[in-house]
Amino acid sequence: MSSHDKIDLDIYRFILETVTSSSSLDVMSNQVIQLLIGSMKIKGATFFVLNALEGELEIVATQGLSVDYVNKGPILVDKSIQRPSNRETVIISDTHVSDQLQYPEKAKHEGIRSIVSLPINVKGKTIGALRLYHSEVWQITPLEKNLLESLALNLGMALKYFRLLTTVESMKDTLAEVHPVWL
């Protein structure tokens, strides 16, 4: 780990252990956000899931950001942190000189100087995003980028798992209502 890296293999492993041992999406996402902010010493982080019907990213967990910033308006997939493909990591090292933000004035007022937006993809389909916010200009290193992209892949698998678990539990509850003897 270079002296500039905000994340290393030990931190990554600890966060992954949290992902794999969590009992629910809410618990997992809140713990991951807290660990990222604390270990990387960044301003804040947000974990989003995609609402495909509305074309919006919806917050699952966030920390380190003001209520005003969090409630600034809808995070539209085709306008928020613009990129030709929403399946790519977007690194905005300095928000003061970027034209990629949907709400640039809100970011400036919030004291956000850099943003790393990591898509959460499963089988080539975007299902969410992880965003990291820093109050300083941040030149992300190749190691940081690789570890964060790997974390986003794991968050995608975890999100898929929790969705499947919710579906199975719902089916189990329905069966219990219809045929209580079966369960």
From TrEMBL:
Pfam families: GAF. Coiled coil: none annotated. This is GAF domain-containing protein. It comes from the Bacteria. Residues 24-169 form the GAF domain. Gene3D superfamilies: 3.30.450.40.
